[in-house]
Amino acid sequence: xxxxxxxxxxxxxxxxxxxxxxxxxxxxxxxxxxxxxxxxxxxxxxxxxxxxxxxxxxxxxxxxxxxxxxxxxxxxxxxxxxxxxxxxxxxxxxxxxxxxxxxxxxxxxxxxxxxxxxxxxxxxxxxxxxxxxxxxxxxxxxxxxxxxxxxxxxxxxxxxxxxxxxxxxxxxxxxxxxxxxxxxxxxxxxxxxxxxxxxxxxxxxxxxxxxxxxxxxxxxxxxxxxxxxxxxxxxxxxxxxxxxxxxxxxxxxxxxxxxxxxxxxxxxxxxxxxxxxxxxxxxxxxxxxxxxxxxxxxxxxxxxxxxxxxxxxxxxxxxxxxxxxxxxxxxxxxxxxxxxxx
Amino acid sequence: xxxxxxxxxxxxxxxxxxxxxxxxxxxxxxxxxxxxxxxxxxxxxxxxxxxxxxxxxxxxxxxxxxxxxxxxxxxxxxxxxxxxxxxxxxxxxxxxxxxxxxxxxxxxxxxxxx
Amino acid sequence: xxxxxxxxxxxxxxxxxxxxxxxxxxxxxxxxxxxxxxxxxxxxxxxxxxxxxxxxxxxxxxxxxxxxxxxxxxxxxxxxxxxxxxxxxxxxxxxxxxxxxxxxxxxxxxxxxxxxxxxxxxxxxxxxxxxxxxxxxxxxxxxxxxxxxxxxxxxxxxxxxxxxxxxxxxxxxxxxxxxxxxxxxxxxxxxxxxxxxxxxxxxxxxxxxxxxxxxxxxxxxxxxxxxxxxxxxxx
Amino acid sequence: xxxxxxxxxxxxxxxxxxxxxxxxxxxxxxxxxxxxxxxxxxxxxxxxxxxxxxxxxxxxxxxxxxxxxxxxxxxxxxxxxxxxxxxxxxxxxxxxxxxxxxxxxxxxxxxxxxxxxxxxxxxxxxxxxxxxxxxxxxxxxxxxxxxxxxxxxxxxxxxxxxxxxxxxxxxxxxxxxxxxxxxxxxxxxxxxxxxxxxxxxxxxxxxxxxxxxxxxxxxxxxxxxxxxxxxxxxxxxxxxxxxxxxxxxxxxxxxxxxxxxxxxxxxxxxxxxxxxxxxxxxxxxxxxxxxxxxxxxxxxxxxxxxxxxxxxxxxxxxxxxxxxxxxxxxxxxxxxxxxxxxxxxxxxxxxxx
Lengths: 342, 114, 235, 353
Hints:
The structure holds four protein chains of four kinds. Chain B has helices at 22-30, 42-46, 48-52, 57-66, 70-75, 84-88, 95-109, and one strand spanning 14-15. By secondary structure, chain B is mainly α. By secondary structure, chain C is mostly helical. Helices cover 57% and strands 0% of the residues of chain C. Chain C has helices at residues 4-9, 12-17, 26-30, 32-36, 41-50, 53-60, 73-77, 84-97, 105-108, 110-124, 142-150, 152-158, 176-189, 191-208, 220-227. The radius of gyration of chain C is 20 Å and the shape is globular. In chain D, helix 3 packs across helix 15, helix 6 (101-116) packs across helix 7 (118-132) and helix 8 runs parallel beside helix 11 (200-207). Chain D folds into two domains: 13-145, Glutathione S-transferase Yfyf (Class Pi), Chain A, domain 2 (Up-down Bundle), CATH 1.20.1050.140; 160-340, Rossmann fold, CATH 3.40.50. Chains in contact: A-B, A-C, A-D, B-C, B-D, C-D. Strand 17 of chain A pairs parallel with strand 1 of chain B, so a sheet runs across the interface.
C-alpha cells in the first residue's frame, strides 16, 4: 500500500495507534513534543483500579510501537497542518515538512494547572500539592511534607478544575474520583497511622472495579469521605493547612487542620491540541476538546477528511478507554484508505 | 451583656480537631461495617421511627463520625430496632448492631449517659 | 395566590444570582453567618430552586433570610456562578413588599434600619451622621468615642473638616436642593414606597404585639425590635 | 508561604487606574469615624503628588448601607448613583474615585448590571431625568481611593520620612492587611491582585518597608454585615467575626493592621475594646492591643504627617506602640488638644489621672 500516516502525540493513544497502524502494514511517523515517548503515564506510579505498576503498561506500549515501520520523532510539535490534494502537509516547530496520507491526532490532555484555583493556594502554601506531585512522591518512595516529616493527616480535594464555571470547565474529568481513592489507599499503604479525608461533591465511580475500590478504601483502609466542595485553604504559622468545607450531609460548616492537602487536578484540552486546532481548522467543542463528527458512532472522525482523533484529545478517558479508542481510530484509518483506493 | 446589650456569639462549625471521636471509634472497632456507609439515605427513608420523629440514622452516622455527639445522644432513643434499615442498606452495614453499640458507647464514655 | 418564584424572578439580582445549584456547600463553608447562625445558604438556594411556593413563603417569613451579612464571599467561590447573597437580597425585598418580614424577630428589625439609616439618607444626605451616633445607643464604640462625640465640633474643625458648613468637605451640610433631588429619586424609583411599606406593616405588627408605636426611635416597638434577641438563632 | 506564587496570581490581575483628574466621592462612615484619613488623601494627592482632585459639594451618600440593609431598592440605589455620575459629567471629569468600599462595590455591581442588561441602564437614565433633570456618562475609569494610593505607592516611598521598620531591631514591621469584602469578592477582576490575594494593601506595605502577614482567617469578613451591626440585638455576630480574625492572627504577632474599607478599621479597633471588656482578653503584644490603621493614615505617617493631624487620637486602641516602634516623632500632650478653649480628654483617661 505504501501509505504514510502521521500520529501526533506519543502518549498512550499515539503509541497504541502507531503500533496498530504499523501492524497493518502502514508507514508511521510518530511525533512527540517531549524528549521521550509515553506521555502522562511516565509520571504516574501505579494505575487504578488494581494499582498495577505503570511501567508494565509503558513497556507494553514501547514494545508495540518499536517497529521499523514507525519513525519516532521526539522534541517535535506540529505548527501547521494543511491539506494538499488528497494528502496533508505537516510543518513541525523545527521547520521540517512531513507529508501524510492520513493523520491521527493523539495530542492528549493537560492536567489542570492547580494554581488557577487560587483559593487552594497551590504554589503558595508549602503543603498543598497536586495529584501529579503525589505520584512523584510515591515514585520517590517517601511521603513527606515541607518540614521533612511524614504527614499525619492528609486531605484530598476532588473536582479541582472540573465541574467549575470559575475556571471555565463545566465538565466532569471522570478520573479524579477514582484517582483520589487510589491515592488515598496508597497513602495508607505508606503511612498506616495517617488519617485520610476525601472531600467530594459526588463520588463518580463509574468504571470497572471503581466502586469496589471505593468500598475497599472505606472498609479496609478507613479512608474518610466528607461531602462538600472545599471552599478555601489557608496556612497556619506551623505550616498546617486549614480547610473550610461544608459537611453537607451534616448540614454544618466544618473546619479542619491538615498536614498535607492534595488537589485532584482535572483534565483539560492540551496546549498542543489547542495550538493545532487554531492552525489546522480542526473544530473544538464547548469544553475546548476536539469535537468529533458524532458523539456515538463517529468519535474518531474529525471535520477534516483523513484526520482522525484518538484518545483524550476529545474527552477525559482512562487508559483502557484510550487504548480502545486508539484502536478504533486505526480501524477508521484503514477504512479510509480502502475506500479511497477503490 | 448589660453594658453592651449583646454577648459574643459562639461558632457552630464542626471543629473536627476538638471533637470527641471515642463513640465512633468504639463502634468501628466492634462493627467494622459501619465504615461502609455512603450516606445514601436508604436507612432513614425506610425508617419506622423517622416517619414520626426527627430520627435519621444517616444523619446519626455522619454526626457520630465527626464526633458531634449531642444530637445522636438523645436521638438514639427513638430507634425502635425494627431492623428495616438493615434489610435495605446497599453497603451491608449492620445498622441494628450500630445502634446497640452506639448506646453502649454512650454509656461507657459519656458522663451524661441515659 | 401569587407565584412567589415568578415574583422573585422579577428581581434582576435573582435572575443573575440563581443558576442550577448542585448543593456542593462551597457557599456555606465560607459564609461568616453560617459559622455563627443556624444558617445554611446552600439550603436556601435549594429551596428557592425547588420553586415550591409553600416552602418559599415559609422562607420569606423565616428568621433565616435575615442572617446573611451580604459580604458576598459566596459569589467569589460558587462553581456554578450562583450568588446566594444576591438571592437573599431578592428574598428580603419580596418579604418586605409582601409584609412577611414582620413574622420574624430578625425581619422586624427592618423598621430600625429604616428609621436610622433610611431616614438619615433623606434628612442629611448621609447614611450615618455623627450627631446620630450617640454613645447611649453605641456603648460598644467605647470611651474615646464618647469624647469624640461630645467634642465633635472642635475635633472636626481641628482635623480640617467642614462640620455642617457650606461647600465641599467632611460632614458638610448637604444643600436642601440636593436633599429634594434625593427625595424625588426615592419617590420615582420605589424607595419611598418601600419605606412606607416597612412603616405600615410594622405598625400593624406593633398593634398585634401590644406595643406602643410612634415615630422616631423612642417608643416601645422600636426599642423591642432593636434590642430583642431570643437566643435561638445560633443553635 | 511562597511569595513567588502570590506574585504569579497578582500578575493576572492588573487593573487600570487613572493617573490624574480625579472626581472624589466621600464615604459616610469615614467622614464620621476617620475624617483625618480623607483629609490626608486629598493632601497627599494634591500637595505631595500635585494631582487634580475635584470634590462636588452636592454629592451625597450612594445609599449603599441602606441598599445592603435592604431598605433601599436596587432601582433607587442605581438612580442615586446615576446622580453622582451626573455631577461628575457636569464637572467635566471621567475618573471616579470613591473613598468607600461599599460604594465601590455598588458602583461595580451597577456598571456590571448595566453591561448585561442595557434596558436597566435606559430605565435608570429615564428615572434620573424625571427626578432631577440630569443626564450622565458612566465613568471612564473607576478606582477605589486605595487603588489610587497603590498606584502612587512608589512616589510616596520616594518622599517618605519613615519606613515600616522597627527602629530598634531593624526588622520590618509585621503588618496584617484587611481588605473590605466588597472590594473584590464580587468582581475579582476589579481589584488589584484579585479576590484571593489582593495586592492593593500588600503592595503598599512592601513598598513602605513592612512585612505582610498572611494568617488563616485573612479573607474573613470583619463582621459588619450591615444589619448585623446596625441593630444592637445582632452585634454578637458582628464582634464574633472580628474575634475569629484576632484569634487567628495572634500567633503571628502582628504589629499593626491596615485596612481599605470604611467600617472594618472602626470595627477591628472597637471590638478589641469590647472583647477585652466582656472576656478580659487583650490582643497584641504586651497587652497593648493591635493598632488598626487606614491606608491613608499609614501613608501619612510614612510621609511624616503629624499623627494627631491624621486623627489617630480617635482610635480606641492606642496607636502609640506602632509610632514608637517606627520612631515617629510626636507630642503625647498634644494628642487630645483641640483648641485654646477646649482641653477635654476621654473620660477613662481623666479617671486614671
